[in-house]
Amino acid sequence: SGAAGELLLRHSIGEPFDSRPVVSRGNVWIATRSGRLVIVDLESGASSGYLQLPQGLRVGPAFDSKGRVLYQLGENSNLYVISIDTNECREVLYLGHEPESIRVAPLAVSPYLFVAENSGASDSVLHVLLTDDAGLSVRPAQASAPMPGHVLTPPVASGRTLVAASDRHAQHALPRSLASGR
């Protein structure tokens, strides 16, 4: 409780997780190392269950603006597109990222999805993906944008500009209008 500092709820996840919890649709979503995406109700602290993905998870999900789809990066290679209503995996997009190369959750700003991948010892790339009106048919919108340094903090969207910062003090600003097709 903000006013009194009292504990309002507690929920044991039961396994290690590296990701920052993500709050969306009245729930907290926690991605675990074993590949579970645990869903915890914000009001009661009870879990309504979890989604099991085929590989470990190191970052939390992103959600489309309509609240129908979530985007979850696997520990390596794949981006999973999951229907929130049915918990069904609708698509898997091969990104080809290495284990531990993605340290922050993707950012969804309809109709775009931005994924910051640390590549090599000291560089990164920003993948700009495009979705259809339903948040599906995820595909590259343009060539990935290279950046010096590793991205360790989530990208931020402001107005029509996306800003990603790296540990080498590089900032990359992309006007969202650069993506093809929109």
What does this molecule look like?
By secondary structure, the chain is mostly beta strands. The chain has strands spanning 22-24, 27-31, 36-41, 47-52, 62-63, 69-73, 78-83, 89-94, 107-109, 112-119, 123-130, 139-140, 145-148, 156-158, 161-165, 171-175. Strands 9, 10, 11, 12 and 13 form a five-stranded antiparallel beta sheet that branches. Strands 1-2-3-4 form a four-stranded antiparallel beta sheet, with no helix packed on it. Strand 6 and strand 7 (78-83) form a beta hairpin. The chain starts with 21 loop residues before the first strand and ends in a 7-residue tail after the last strand. 37% of the residues are buried.
In terms of DSSP E residues, the strand content is 35-45%
The helix/strand class is mainly beta
Shape: globular
Look at the structure and give the mean pLDDT. Answer: 89
Helix content range: under 10%
Number of strands: 16
Tell me the span between the first and last alpha carbons.
43 Å
Tell me the radius of gyration. 17 Å
Report the biggest beta sheet as strand number plus sense, adding barrel if it closes: 5 strands, antiparallel
The helix tally amounts to 0
User: Which stretches are low in confidence, meaning pLDDT under 50 for 5 or more residues running?
Assistant: 178-182
Order of helices and strands: EEEEEEEEEEEEEEEE
